[in-house]
Design brief:
Number of strands: 10
CATH superfamily of the largest domain: ATPase, nucleotide binding domain
Order of helices and strands: EEEHEHEHEEEHHHEHEH
Bound molecules: zinc ion
CATH architecture of the largest domain: 2-Layer Sandwich
Strand order of the largest sheet: 3-2-1-4-5
Strand content: 15-25%
Largest sheet: 5 strands, mixed
């Protein structure tokens, strides 16, 4: 892939939108960032006004914006042919349902590609991180919520909407884990059992604070291993990346590899699935830069497609 081949076509406005902060960047299509800032996530009116002002000023300094790429928290409409493409849908975040990136960016009159924050992170890791070289890649974040971004050759995979892997329900043995789960829709889906808030609700502590408790780490790894094995069976990715705050727990990634191996039970045999899954299931390599890198690439794709 030649990232520089369209460098003459203008600049990319990139947005990584999270529940607590927005990262904004003006970049060349090759990924070089010319201007960058971060904003607190307030009401859509406040945040979108500040976002538009940043891009107008950055474009005045550095040059014309030719496309936008946005990697946003959701749920969000990611279907380009939909009349509500780029609109936040059923989030519980006050004021945000119905907020539309297109409404605020229409004044620039350029193509916009919008996808989820986890797809943005997947693309960022694929460009120059732990997903480099993978054809199909799945990036799963385990933090405030759980979700997976799937990409193939750097482009988002989806159906009539983005995937919602965090709401798959793993087997839940109430004898070993009587915690009922916290998902408002399903109670004991993966997010209801193994997200950061679920862990805090179950034990009153983060998993990091419980890292000496191998039974706690193993329990959470069991639920995440079920999700990992499901991703393998559904998509056969070349690699799985697990990131997010909960993955900062020492020993968790190793326990997820073991749980995934147990779940797959030797059924899928392929050189990609190395013994112990040490190469196959990876931690992110880019840290906080994956999301904005992915958003720049989404914008580059909007420019060239
Ligand atoms: Zn759920």
């Amino acid at each position: 892939m030649n990232l520089a081949e369209h460098a003459d076509g203008g600049l990319i406005g990139a947005v990584e939108a999270g529940g607590t902060k927005f990262v904004l960047a003006l970049a060349r299509p090759d990924g070089t960032i010319l201007a960058r800032t971060r904003l607190p996530t307030q009401s859509p009116q406040q945040t979108f006004a500040a976002m538009a002002a940043f891009f107008e000023q950055a474009a005045a300094t550095h040059g014309r914006i030719a496309a936008f790429g946005i990697a946003s928290f959701g749920p969000i409409d990611v279907i380009p042919s939909s009349p509500t493409y780029g609109t936040i849908t059923t989030t519980t975040k006050p004021g945000w349902p119905g907020a539309s990136y297109h409404d605020v960016l229409a004044r620039f009159g350029v193509p916009v590609q919008i996808h989820t924050d986890v797809v943005g992170a997947a693309i960022g890791e694929w460009i120059r991180g732990a997903g480099a070289g993978a054809t199909t890649l799945a990036y799963t974040t385990v933090g405030t919520g759980i979700g997976s971004g799937l990409i193939r050759e750097g482009r988002p995979l989806m159906g009539f909407s983005h995937y919602e892997t965090g709401h798959i329900q793993p087997p839940h043995d109430l004898a070993t884990d009587p915690f009922p789960g916290i998902c408002a829709f399903h109670q004991d889906c993966a997010e209801g059992l193994a997200s950061g808030p679920a862990i805090k609700s179950r034990w009153g502590k983060s998993l990091d604070e419980l890292a000496g408790d191998s039974a706690a780490v193993s329990l959470i790894a069991g639920y995440l291993g079920h999700l990992a094995a499901t991703l393998v069976l559904m998509h056969m990715p070349d690699r799985l990346i697990f990131g997010g705050g909960v993955l900062k727990t020492p020993g968790l990634i190793e326990a997820i590899r073991a749980a995934t191996t147990a779940r797959l039970a030797g059924y899928v045999q392929h050189p990609r699935l190395d013994p112990g899954l040490v190469d196959y299931i990876a931690l992110p390599a880019l840290g906080d830069d994956a999301g904005i890198s992915g958003a720049i690439e989404l914008g580059r794709q909007a420019l060239t497609s």
